[in-house]
């Protein structure tokens, strides 16, 4: 995707970045989208150009790449790529998660680190932006294999992080188990007990409600959005949540507490649909304790399972088509005629990472799907199939 700008300064910055990182499409798209949103601001204040603020903000301060060698359960040595992008520390130490997923590459890490700058600054806390991870896939690995990978990964990463330098966190594929292994290795190598990683368990320095924070926050935002826009609430609504990991689980929990009914969850293998509402206790057992797949829920309830196939060319489109089919079956929401304009809007927040985000909520408060306008926020690069 090529971006064009009315502002010549921004156009020059983007063209220079595109030339330098021509093989990093995810990063270039993130830069282009952010610069588009900044164009009115830069046009009004020439000091951004005079001081080269945008030039500096799109270039990471440091990009670290390293080899991660570990031994699997069969005694064979495996090798993965490890990364840490320390993007910007203008207002504080680098802060951002560690993603463990086969899709991880320099372009993905840089685009996530770039956006992390702005996410962290909006908290009003003194935190810079960074991101890291590896193309290691924890799915299907034993606890021993995950531990040996994490220890090898931290053996190199520990040289570049610290409580006042860079504080990594969890992300896709990096939960409390992985953070625990990494923190143990860091403590062993540095001989110090410091808050160098967030997302730790409560027994060794973790924060209360950290586990629930992102999922709960999603619902608090949604509740406020509905209240401001239509003087409405989540109560009585039928809801679809994309994902079944940490964020999705606690988004489901809070949606239920607020009076909504979550009827579908998903993972990379497919989705489950239960018109009577998802049994969250069983989901927690499967995903948090057994580390299984969401399809296993079908064995304990009457929900329907739909598997994803490798032949699907566009996972984002497939997911939206699935949501449309679900919407046609859900008839629990009845809106007054005067709300018909709002009922034609389908709000889809499909997130990977991230934000870290990273589960999505789709409120089923619409009347007519065929005339819906789908708002995707970011592009399909943010969608984890």
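-> sequence recovered:
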């Amino acid at each position: 995707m090529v971006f064009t700008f009315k502002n010549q300064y921004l156009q020059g910055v983007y063209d220079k970045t595109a030339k330098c990182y021509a093989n990093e499409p995810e990063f270039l798209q993130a830069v282009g989208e952010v610069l588009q949103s900044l164009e009115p601001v830069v046009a009004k204040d020439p000091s951004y150009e005079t001081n080269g603020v945008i030039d500096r903000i799109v270039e990471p301060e440091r990009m670290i790449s390293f080899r991660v060698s570990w031994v699997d359960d069969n005694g064979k040595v495996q090798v993965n790529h490890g990364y840490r992008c320390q993007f910007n520390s203008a207002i504080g130490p680098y802060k951002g998660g560690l993603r463990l997923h086969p899709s991880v590459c320099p372009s993905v890490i840089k685009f996530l680190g770039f956006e992390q700058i702005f996410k962290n600054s909006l908290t009003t806390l003194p935190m810079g932006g960074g991101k890291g991870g590896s193309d290691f896939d924890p799915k299907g690995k034993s606890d021993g294999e995950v531990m040996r990978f994490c220890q090898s990964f931290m053996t190199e990463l520990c040289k570049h992080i610290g409580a006042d330098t860079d504080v990594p966190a969890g992300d896709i594929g990096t939960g409390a188990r992985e953070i625990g292994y990494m923190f143990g290795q860091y403590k062993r190598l540095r001989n110090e007990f410091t808050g160098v990683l967030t997302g730790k368990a409560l027994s060794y320095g973790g924060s209360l409600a950290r586990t629930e924070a992102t999922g709960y926050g999603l619902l608090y935002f949604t509740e406020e959005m509905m209240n401001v826009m239509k003087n409405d609430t989540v109560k009585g609504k039928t809801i679809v949540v994309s994902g079944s990991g940490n964020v999705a689980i606690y988004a489901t929990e809070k949606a239920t507490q607020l009076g909504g009914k979550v009827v579908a969850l998903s993972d990379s293998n497919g989705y489950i649909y239960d018109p009577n509402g998802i049994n969250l206790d069983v989901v927690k057992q499967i995903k948090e304790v057994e580390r299984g797949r969401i399809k296993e829920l079908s064995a304990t309830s009457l929900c329907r399972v739909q598997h994803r196939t490798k032949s699907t060319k566009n996972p984002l489109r497939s997911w939206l088509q699935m949501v449309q089919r679900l919407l046609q079956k859900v008839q629990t929401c009845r809106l007054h005629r005067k709300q018909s304009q709002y009922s034609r809007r389908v709000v889809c927040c499909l997130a990977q990472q991230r934000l870290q985000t990273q589960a999505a909520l789709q409120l089923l408060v619409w009347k007519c799907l065929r005339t819906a306008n789908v708002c995707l926020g970011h592009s399909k690069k943010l969608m984890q199939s």
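The longest strand covers residues 77-88.
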